[in-house]
Every structure is written in C-alpha cells, then in structure tokens.
Description:
82% of the residues lie in helices and 0% in strands. With 322 residues, it is mostly helical. Helix 8 (148-168) packs across helix 12.
Amino acid sequence: MSKRAWLIIKLCLSALLIGYLLQRIPLRDILHSLAQVDGLWLGVALLLAIVGKVISTLRWRYLLAVQEMPVPFGVLFCSLLVGYFFNNFLPSTIGGDAVRAFDVARYSRRNMASVVTVLTERVMGILALASLALVAALLGFKLIRPVNQVLLLVVFFFVVSFSGFFLITRRSLVEQGVRLLHRLKWMKLAQKSEEAYGAFSVMRDRRGVLTNVFMISALLQLNVLLYYYVLSLSLHLGVSIFYFFCIIPVILVTLQLPVSINGIGVREGLYVFFLGLVGVGGERAIAFSWLDFSMTIVMGLAGGVVFALRQTRRSDESARSS
C-alpha cells in the first residue's frame, strides 16, 4: 500500500471517530468544559512539559557520552524540539526519532551509534513507564479495584515490555538472528544488525549505564504522568492520581499505533472510555483530550520555529561559503 493511500485511510479513520464521538457528545458541552479551565494549573502543566524536554535531553546526552560522542546540550535540546515538530506536523514523511538520529550522526559521523542511542531511549522509557504504572496499580489497588480491566492492562503492559526487552538483549538470540539473516542472503541487514547490537553492547556492558538510564527514564515518565494529572486538575476532573498513573501508560502506548493522524479520534475515544469508567462525563473527557493535544501543538510549534531558524542559518552559511 502506498504512503498516500495509507495517509488517506488514517485521515478517514480520524474523521469517522471524531464524527461518531461528536454525534454522541454535543460540541457545545465540550466547549463549555474547556471554558472552565484553571489557568494556573494549565501553566504548571506547561512548565512540566518543558521540564520533561530538559530531562529527555539530559538522558540523550548521557547515552551519547557513554558512546564517546560528546554533543552540546543546546544542540540536543534544539534537535529534540525539531523532532517533536516532525512527529506532530509531518507524520507521513519522516519521524522525529529519525530526525534526531540524523542530527547527531551529522555532528558525530557515527550513524549506527546515533540511531541506537535514540532507540535505547525509547525502550528504556517504555520500561520505566510500565514500572511506574505497576507501582501505581499496587499502591492504589483499593481505588482502582472496581475497574478490573485497567489493572489487567497494566500487568499485561508490564509483562510484555520486560519480556520483549529480555528477548532483544539476549546475545545468543541476536546471534541466532544474524545467522538466519546470513542464511537468507540478507547480508546488508545482517551487517546492520551486528553494528546495532555492537553499539548497544557498549551501553549494556558498562557497569551501571542501563540502570542509570532507567532511573533517568523513570524520572522523566514520572514527570509525564504528573503533567497529565496536573492537566486534569485544570479541568477539575476529580480523578485519583493513582488512576491516572495506571491509564496514561496504556493510552500513550496505544497512541503509538499508526492508525490515525496524530492519534486524533483514537485519543478522544480512549479518554472517553477510561475516564468514563470512573464517572467522568464524555464532554469533559474530550475537553481533556483536546487540552492535551493543544499543549502538544504548542511544543510542536516551538520545534517548528527552531527548525525554521536552523534552516535559515544553514542557508546563510551556504550562501557565504559559495
């Protein structure tokens, strides 16, 4: 299937989901809920979003330092914002992670190590998110016990995440996979796999590196979960923090599935479902979803400004050198 056809399918799915929800929930009720937003809590949520980007940059810089690829904090922070812009405004062309890996590869001249550090960030972030969700489910068990399906989803998410990590980091399994690729005559893919695993081994074999990355990732994901809880305070949802810590990881992972445009429609449906389980009305759940998406747009636009300024500077440098 062509990229254009897949894009059209995702557009249609987003439109159908939004149309279905708006048939059930009047738009005026959603707008009325948005009008009740507490600006102070919204400002705190925005601050937490910025803090999250700083923590992400520090984690990335640490991984690059382990690979002996020192890159200035400012370069990485700007690249992170640009990647966020690409993720949210240009989903059909190139992903934000690819942009980040390309930026570092251009700076360090080490392509595979650049890609592996970005992928390691992603994987450790998922593990940390799964761990925090499980801890929240255990601590707030009495609060979420009436919603059994949420607890089951959290446990499933945790088991799958750590099982997957265990499998992809086993040296023997990787070696078997590489041998299979050689037998299939997929030499280039086998070579790339060996290079990627070699770059990952640098981090895995150095004492404490993955533990440190996991701890930084846990701090980052705690910040993310607090952001969502504070955002709920701005709309006066009255939902337990433990419940948010359980459902947000499930929602965030589901939104990674490329079935709609930037999660539009899917995001709203998930919030209506999960928040509805604890008595939040559909209009307030969608208002929460749109408020979250608005914050995403703001951060993405900041990345777009950085990207435009960077392109202008490079054009000026090219003009001067020619």
